[in-house]
Amino acid sequence: MKKFMHIDAASVDDAVSVLTEYGSRATIIAGGTDLLGIMKDRILPEYPEALVNIKTIAGLDYISETDGMLKIGALAHLTDVANHPTIKSKYSALAHAARRVAFPEIRNMGTIGGNICQGIRCWYYRASGNFFNCLRKGKGRCYAVIGDNRYHSTFGQIQACFAVNPSDTAPALVALDARIKTSKRTVAAEKFFTVNGAKTTVLDNDEIVIEIQVPAPGIHIKSSFIKFAIRKSGDFPILNCAAAIARQDGKVKEARICLNAVYNTPYRVIAAEEAITGKSIDEPNAVAAGSAAVLNARPMTKNKYKIEIAKTLVKRAVLACR
Amino acid sequence: MTIEQFKVIGKPIPRVDAFVKVTGQAEFVRDLNIPGMLRTKILRSTHAHAHIVKIDTSRAGALPGVAAILTHKNIPAGWPAFGEGKPHIRILDNTVRFVGDPVAVVAAESEEIAEEAADLIEVEYEPLPAVLTIDDAMKTGAPRLYHEFEDNFVPEAYLGISTDGYGDVEAGFKEADVIVEGYPDIRNIPPAILCLEPDGAVAWWEGDKVVAIISSQHTPRIPEYISAFTGLPLTNVRAMSVYIGGDGSSKTTCLKHLEFAVALAKITGRPVGCFLNKEDQFLKYRRGRLKVRHKIGLKKDGKVTALETDIVGDAGAYSYVGWRYLVSATICPPAIFANFPNYRVTRRLVITNTSPAGGCRGYGFMIAHWSLAQVMMKAVERIGMDPYEVFMKNAVGFGDRYHGFGSPQICENEPIKRAAEEGARRFAWKEKWRGWGKPTAVDGTKIRAVGVGWGGHIGANRHGFTATVTLSQNGMITMTPGIGAYGSGQRENVRKFAAEVLKVSYDTIKSPLADTDANQYYEWCRNNCGTYALGNAVLHAAEDARRKLFELAAPKLGVKPSDLETEDRVIYVKRKPDQKISWDKVIGEGPVIGIGHQTGSFTVPTILAGFAEIELDTETGQLEVLNYLVATDVGRIVSPLDCAQQLVFALVQDGTREAYIIDDSSGRILNTNYTELESCTFAELPPFQTVITETPAPGGPFGASGIGEPAGVPLPQAVVMALYNATGKVIELPATPDKILKALGKI
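ok -> structure tokens follow
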């Protein structure tokens, strides 16, 4: 690793003021499970001059249900999110998603804030020594287009990059209609993700995530999360899917279904939601929702298989909300 | 002898070195902190093939803390600079031949400074066209990697054997009822073994002598390598071993880091440590690719009548051990057939702009077993037999003529039959096997199916060894040769053999780590020859020491040596145990040195059968191995824990889900990490059973015949067969969801 400054922030304001001072030359570090890999492998052309350590901000790791919503401090560890009794019982998609992130060691270190802000997973982008200086790094091209794109987007792209968002918790938060409170604003989870240079969120350089807010689901709402990966532990998703379904009189009143690792951002499949709305949750209707989910799919040369899996995950996520 | 009569053999005794390893006290090469030692960083090529037009190290060299920078321009004068005795391999060259090929090496006061300096080295490349595949390398007019290798073929003079065989292949095919010819396309291969501890070497000079400490299971060969590139006589080179965090042959070759440490130590006059990181380890070497065409003839009753194999190997950018792939690939698979009459093989080796094929567990025979299994599957399906029956029909037993190396041999152990029968029974093979292309069960979106695989190796007694066991006057019992402590328990086994002979507590016997200044040379301790070949040499040395001890004691007790026995360092007359004398009094002023020798042969095969039951998710293409049973006969279990461990841990590199993924445009391996290289974790190990039978091998130490390198071979074949029974298609490994969904007609 190269040398860098390591600045402990005492408060959110403190962190923001250091970020303001350093601009793009500073990066936030919390669990560091993504960032340290990026730095050790030196995948980006520029190396951060300073890391702003927000782990030193006291009291930002809370999990509580107040004001009709679940509030999770940005520094709450994924292990704690996964094991929290209220989250497990009422926000089960989120608990399952947090439980399926990486390995126990990473979940003990990694935070919910970091999980939704993590970088894209693309082996061209992540090749050590900035081997492929791709367009997410400011210039070049998307090497995945003619390269090995088995794990890349199946629904097109934003700004010509075909890398996917690999977060497990992000689709759960979109399905549960969460909001992300930052040092500047509160934004719907669905609008939080984008392509922003190398970043995957709408955050400005001097902005940090403070809290995740999830509206308390009514008693008729059930949520689910399913992850597909080669290995049982440690893998990023080839695909994952979260669903939150509200029912009335045995029929689906409202559904929110979100895939991830299929597009630059978590990919809400509205066609699937519409297909199941007003219907009962059974095998044929769930199959129809799965088929509707992939109508707009645009596979690349090596990832057609992901569409089959997407269909299946949507179907299974819907059925799991029965 | 029965197990009750042994003190230590067959007993689950923890290894002597286990405690120091798990408590962090064992010293590995990275733990060596020699005063004044410099650390290094390797700058690697970003091109698959290029000339280095210019290399400017001035800025890097000016960085405080940098001691020296090695490039192709400043190799110490007068050195032949050949890599591992191969004249075409330079320590560093003005041409780079794969992405990751070393270009320059910085030696500095710290690894951080070395890394910073490596960034400051300016290299100007003139890119050259690259060949990344066997097919591309063989094309007419293909870009050439070396002027000495016409058409990119590595000549036989590089330790190769291009053809061999015996019998009459044509006559064999005439006799066959079914002939199947296949060209299984093995493009993606399981990665080479990546042991926990990446490679490392430390070197320093003492006048005109060099001392090297290296993490390698083959320390005795290291002086030859150093001699080859420095031009020093062997007497001026000393190599030593420390504890090793795994090897699996991966640290026996492609040892550029050793060359860098030796060269930079020469230039700087200081000790130099060159330690690879995980990505360096990925780039250092890989398992060589093979293209294999088999033609097999089978009688209706399942007997094999002939086999013809044409094999082309990919040595990567350097041909360190490329030929060994071809040899192991063609001597091991046919060894599973008894009375195998007619065989012909053609071997060719090409060179490509990919990382070099290096040593790894399974070398070429693991892939060759897969490819042979695929051809066998088709042939056996055509005769309509149960594959287990066909394997058993051809299975090698004691006294059978079987495939050795170059000529048939007579088998001197009972390698598989009892174990396979017991394995099939415990797995319930007969109940689960439903016929070719037929699943065992279909339940909604899940398909279950079974398969069986067979794997063999002929190396249990492959190399000769000479050992000594010394009984010193101060009570010490020491032995030679020193052995690499790379985790397979060899040092424990040989101590146990000596302890049983001398009837002393086995932990009082020292089995040293290798030191070439102190120990006699041996060629290799590889494959699975540590127990049978090395073990026999130690056993004979211990017997020789005991014989000498008895000869010295006999006159003192007034009896014949044959009247004597020993226990706990006391020699006594068998019929009058009260008539006794202590070792100390017998040994007197000089040590008693026993010498034992074992001659190598290809007469002790190791053969395994593996039975797998898989489940496929027909909607996602996910493969799960539900249970796996591996069966083998080891002659005698010496260390139950190590023996089972050899079988279990062979599965972590089974190749059913993982492969290197190479970017076609740049030649770079894309998944040089454990995140995207889907290697096995504990969660992926299938529920697992071992059936280890013990039919004593008459020539083995206490009947042991060994286990080791080939242990992982049957599983991938069993999975491929089970996939065929589940889908009706042959699915090339790794069996990724896309291939399975395709086989199921979903995409």
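The radius of gyration of chain B is 27 Å.
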